[in-house]
Amino acid sequence: xxxxxxxxxxxxxxxxxxxxxxxxxxxxxxxxxxxxxxxxxxxxxxxxxxxxxxxxxxxxxxxxxxxxxxxxxxxxxxxxxxxxxxxxxxxxxxxxxxxxxxxxxxxxxxxxxxxxxxxxxxxxxxxxxxxxxxxx
Length: 136
Hints:
The chain is an alpha+beta fold. The protein is 35% helix and 33% strand. Strands 1-5-4 form a three-stranded antiparallel sheet. The protein starts with a helix and ends with a helix.
């Protein structure tokens, strides 16, 4: 269980940082003034017992993960950390991050299962995003 959690955390920290490339992205050429984000979710680790329900949950989770990636690109990431020393020996260290923002106008470019992962790719036209934010 701990190994699965560590693998999922590692995937969340490294696999989601890429905004272009990867399986399926070749179909959508990178355009100027567009942001791209990819979200991932493991299918087998979803809670329902039924495979179709697991797939639906993974689809939703990967879409939310892609939106999180877009939010981080638009608004940045707030990080905080703390460490505890005892006799100059590091006892405990934690790092946390958060992002908060509003994403409007993003569109799903591609959404597909890839092995045990479900992948969602989003695109955001920055000019359209700015018009929406100004209410035009």
